[in-house]
Amino acid sequence: MSSPAQPVAESLVQSVDWLAIAPPTLAAVVALVVLVADLFVSEARKPFLGWLSVAGLAASAALLLPLLDGDRSTFCLTGDPSACSYTADRFTLVIQFLVLGGALLAALLSVTALKDARGRLPEGEFWFLLLSSAAGAALLPASRDLATLVVALEVASLPAFALVGIRHGDRRSSEAALKFFLSSVTATAVSLMGISFVYATTGTLYLTRIADRIQHVDGRFDTLAQTGVVLTLVGFAFKTAAVPFHFWVPDTYIGAPLPVAAYLSVVGKAVGFSGLILVTVVALPSYADVWGPALAALAALTMTVGNVGALRQQATRAYSAVRLLAWSSVGQAGYLLVPIAAAAYSDDAEHAVGSTVAYALMYAAVNLGAFAVAALVGRTSPRNRLTDYRGLYARNPLSALLLAFFLLCLAGLPPGVIGLFAKVTVFSAAVDAGLGWLAVVMAVNVVIALYYYLQWTTLLFRAPEGEPVEHRIPAPLTVAITLTAVVGIALSGAPQLVLRFADTGLF
Amino acid sequence: MIDINESVMQFLLAFVVVGPLLGAAAALLPAPPGLKGKSPEQAVLRHGVTVTGVVLVAAIVLALGFDHDHPSKMQAGTDISWIPALDVRIHLGIDGISLPLLLLTALLTFLCALYSYFKMPAGPTPKAFVALVLVLESGTLATFAVLDLLLFFLAFEMVLIPMYFLIARWGGEGRSPAAMKFILFTLLGSVVMLLGLLLIGIDAGTFDMVALATDNGRSLTTSVQVIAVLSIGLGLAVKTPMWPLHSWLPDAHTAAPTVGSVLLAGVLLKMGTYGFVRILLPIAPDGFHTFAPYLAAFAVVGIIYGSLACLALAKQGAKGDLKRLIAYSSVGHMGFVLLGIASTTPTGVNGALFANIAHGLITGLLFFLVGALKDRTGTTDLDALAEQTGAALYGKAPRLGGLLAFAAVASLGLPGLAGFWGEMLAMFGAFDPAADLSRPAFLTFTAIAAFGTLLTAAYLLVVVRRVCMGTLPQDAPKLADVQTYEFAAWTPLVALTVAAGLWPKALLGLTDPAVQQLLAGGTR
């Protein structure tokens, strides 16, 4: 490339590494195919679209395999090959796997949900939106410049608004969508302003270049740069559902179809925290003294508010099970933020961030598992109250045992061994960074969380009210529950499978 | 005693830890043909007896194969890497400190399974009951057998869920809040403990207990040791329980089924004191010495507080619950154990370990007896039992009454029975504490603890008088006396109580070399 004899045209035309960008691209292509196919498929054949989407997501996840052999970058500056917009390194691949796998499981739940809705949900649009959002979410961890990052964030979010409000004529659904939309747009706007400040002071959008140049910012722009750093984080904190940007969560989860809530709780969070990691650890390591304390405070607030909110749920209220999962997901977001905050204080930031990734993988598997069982119970008791889970063991022993396992993983107690060790890595990141107070706050929160998880677990084994009704579990739900259970149990036996990310370099 | 191949020993220890877990999984499956028994309930209860029995036999063989000439050496060791990312290794091994506790656990669980086979506590299916008891056994045995700090934490946490469900599903009145209180208290303690363990592990660069004990705190600064001891000590103190962190214990004991109480008092509490000896004493000696006087102070307050609470419960008209009373007496007894550990001398720590075992045997027996009493009379309320003159158990059921009186005097520390040696040695240790500890303070503690033994004797004798003695009315209904299965479950405890009282060397000979080595810093 550096040869002076090179034709000018070649230095202008980028060579694209199609294999590297294949996973998000395939998801986007399948989304378009589904949208077009929807026009030509008869009403009776609509379920075909669902299976096409599931296959598409599985295929894009499979396309991660050939990328495992090493780091790849594409869309690089022709002058400076080290500044790239798209990089498929270990971090990218792990998060893409998480996002695509999460979307796949959410899609499996959706197949049943759409079938049960019997045409009240527009199938073609649903699958198009889900796939495009997944494509955006898969693009995000690979983006290495702020513009791509924001575009990916929006591609992941905009379809999600529509998904939340997809139930036509349901007032709660559209209200939730509006609430979600307005607050999210505000957060993005604030974020964009922050990015413009950072751009103004550094003159570049590439994360690695920002990392270099922001150290040499003119002293008079110091305040501007710091404000920019803080404002940039807002948009991502919003996606992670960190307090005080969490208020949309409970209403949105209840208003949305259950699979969409499951999708948001896992993929939405992954989008948020991977963006946060990229902005903080990759782009702004020299401003650790600004974002470190901010994220630490955010983490402490988030987990406390989330867990206390979950604690206050009344079991008899409508949708209390989903509400509880929503609040608990806010609490879990707090744990996810702890290692990112710890990265600011630690010499080895990648090591700390790896704990977040490991925790997120565990959380994704068991939280989707819990949502899958909730979807199962929701089929017979559409109001999905916690009291509806009473005596689940008598009705359906296996799914009750699995839900108990998922909940105990979330709580972090054996037999949920992987939950326990994932928490241990997060704790150890905090202790390693000298954030003792945050570790203690988290310790208290783990106890608060156990209270509500355990109450739910106990409820499963109570004597049922009334006769148990035999109920056949649809195949896609069975597959989703089995997949998450196998992952959860396998990880409990061999925690190293995910914990190794906490031990090695990701970037 | 007998020569067993090292790899067989390794297998036996691994089997003792994992066996119950496999048994628990098998208990949930339907019984295979040929083992169906009379009913599914009977089959699964028999399965429980078989598994715990096999584990007990394995533990006994392990004890026989144990090299009694070198009890301070880690034996039957396994060391496999499990989670390299966190540096967690499956490191198992036993020495003279853990072997007696391992045996006690295997024995008590077997006796509980045997007892439940004939007398299943009222509640939902026995299937879950057996599975939970087996998971509980596995967790406890693992706590005593592992030599990795994070694995210790895992084992420590493993007992919480089974015990919670044993209390919440098979318990008596007020079981749900009691079970919740138990698990929340213990979890809060153990999460704080985890922070201390991580601090040690990260600072010293290893989680291996043997390596850390050999290092004897040399690679940890004093401030790290102080923080680590404070947080680990808190977690262990909740479990032990140490006054004023004991308030979960009386509720849990009162609500728990008989078998739950026996295991809780007999085995679970020992996990706390074992942690003190195994982790804090050798790994963070400086930090421990800083806190030793405070620990001793809390311990003697616990002794006095427990005895006074028992006296108040034993009084006529106090509506005292017998199970609650024994729970409070446990707080007092564990106070002696903590006092012995706090003295940081070989004598004191040996006494503490002896008292640990003695408490497991005697209090286990007491809870069995009170449970049997409750089955017969339907109450454990002292006033309801004794009415005006006394329950006259000697007249109504002489053997049961005799056993109760035996357990009570064993508990108050009658010389010649197991309860005596541990408490005496613990006080001896406190009388002459380690060189850098304040002698006058410890002399005061010893004096107060000695006074506590008097109070202990007082309330236990009051209990014997009110429950066993009394005038027998003419028309009083006879109570069923001790049944065969009850004899089977209780005789080993009685025999061991007498044996440990008459021949303390059998136990002290095991613990002493190991304790000497731990206090001297791993290597001697």
TrEMBL record, chain A:
The keyword Ribosomal protein is assigned to this record: no
Reactions catalysed: a quinone + NADH + 5 H(+)(in) = a quinol + NAD(+) + 4 H(+)(out)
Domain of life according to the entry: Bacteria
Keywords: Cell membrane, Membrane, NAD, Quinone, Translocase, Transmembrane, Transmembrane helix, Transport
InterPro entries, per database record: NADH-Q_OxRdtase_suN/2, ND/Mrp_TM
UniProt keyword annotation of Transport present: yes
The enzyme's E.C. designation: 7.1.1.-
Compartments, record wording: Cell membrane; Endomembrane system; Membrane
Any single GO CC term annotated in Swiss-Prot or TrEMBL for this entry: endomembrane system
Biological-process GO terms, alphabetical: ATP synthesis coupled electron transport
TM ranges: 20-41, 48-68, 93-114, 126-143, 149-166, 178-199, 229-249, 261-284, 290-312, 324-345, 357-377, 398-422, 434-454, 475-498
Known function: NDH-1 shuttles electrons from NADH, via FMN and iron-sulfur (Fe-S) centers, to quinones in the respiratory chain. The immediate electron acceptor for the enzyme in this species is believed to be a menaquinone. Couples the redox reaction to proton translocation (for every two electrons transferred, four hydrogen ions are translocated across the cytoplasmic membrane), and thus conserves the redox energy in a proton gradient.
Protein name: NADH-quinone oxidoreductase subunit N
Species name: Streptomyces phaeofaciens
Lineage of source species: Bacteria, Bacillati, Actinomycetota, Actinomycetes, Kitasatosporales
Gene that this polypeptide is encoded by: nuoN
Automatic annotation (TrEMBL), chain B:
GO CC field: endomembrane system; membrane
Keywords: Membrane, Transmembrane, Transmembrane helix
GO molecular function: NADH dehydrogenase (ubiquinone) activity; NADH dehydrogenase activity; ubiquinone binding
Bilayer-crossing regions: 12-31, 43-66, 97-117, 153-170, 182-202, 222-238, 259-281, 293-313, 325-345, 351-373, 400-421, 441-464
Topological relation to the membrane, as annotated: Multi-pass membrane protein
Pfam families: Proton_antipo_M
Stored InterPro entries: NADH_Q_OxRdtase_chainM/4 (IPR010227), NADH_UbQ_OxRdtase (IPR003918), ND/Mrp_TM (IPR001750)
GO BP field: ATP synthesis coupled electron transport; electron transport coupled proton transport
Residues of the NADH:quinone oxidoreductase/Mrp antiporter transmembrane domain: 148-433
Subcellular location: Endomembrane system; Membrane
Source superkingdom: Bacteria
Family of the protein in this entry: Belongs to the complex I subunit 4 family.
Protein name: NADH-quinone oxidoreductase subunit M
The organism of origin for this protein: Streptomyces phaeofaciens
